[in-house]
Design goal:
Pseudouridine synthase, alpha+beta, 29% strand
């Protein structure tokens, strides 16, 4: 993914904030080494002037992401996220067949915990993290999950699923738990994690808003190919 039309990705916009359906492969903010790489914040700054980042999505995670247009709105939203008030819902295609229909993953995580900068399970130095998983459909090798993280650590969903034996399909960085060599060969560069919706209290209107992002075509196509229920 190298280019996109911004106006086609706007999910919600008012005087205080803007929500974008982030394409997989696009950075949320500037790259730490190459600031010329395509990213949402720079794109929005060029279109709107100063834009504030509320939260981030990994490069290959698609879906709804919020930005603030005003400093005070940003401050209020930051407080809300720090207090874990927004409700976030993700969808993922994973490797593996669980024996359960729903499961709460409560594993402490340490961000940047190894030489590959992964978030890892660390019962001693890790921070508390909780992710609720609901199995929507499964085949013998793959499953489709509904995911509700109640905390927001970097790579939390990817790390929790990997540590539980269900790495996200295509996620090379977190495939290590299921591959003796720590490597995997996928015919695509992205992984299949989508930020489906977010529900939060508007910082000015003082009412709850839910914003949803439609599933990317590649995600829906993969659900078909793996014979998973895309209408679940």
């Amino acid at each position: 993914m190298t280019e996109f039309i911004l106006k086609e990705k706007i999910l919600y916009e008012d005087n205080d904030l803007i929500a974008i359906n982030k394409p997989s492969g696009v950075l949320s903010i500037e790259d730490g080494y190459d600031r010329n790489k395509l990213n949402l914040r720079t794109t929005l700054n060029k279109a709107y002037g100063k834009i504030w980042t509320v939260h981030r999505l990994d490069k290959y995670t698609s879906g709804v992401i919020l930005f603030a247009k005003k400093k005070e709105s940003h401050r209020q939203l930051n407080l809300s996220f720090a207090n874990r008030e927004p409700e976030k819902n993700y969808r993922a295609i994973v490797n593996g067949f669980p024996v359960w229909d729903s499961f709460d993953i409560n594993l402490p995580l340490k961000v940047n915990g190894d030489r590959d900068h992964r978030t890892i399970f660390d019962p001693v130095n890790g921070k508390p993290a909780s992710t609720r998983i609901i199995r929507l459909s499964s085949t013998e090798r793959y499953s489709y999950f509904d995911i509700f993280p109640s905390s927001g650590l970097t790579h939390q969903i990817r790390a929790h699923l990997s540590a539980s034996g269900f790495p996200i399909f295509g996620d090379r960085l977190y495939w290590y738990c299921c591959d003796a060599n720590g490597k995997s060969d996928f015919p695509f560069s992205n992984f299949f994690l989508h930020a489906l919706s977010i529900t939060f209290r508007h910082p000015v209107l003082n009412k709850h808003i839910q914003i949803s992002a439609p599933m990317p075509l590649l995600f829906s196509t993969m659900l078909d190919e793996l014979k998973l229920c895309k209408n679940c």
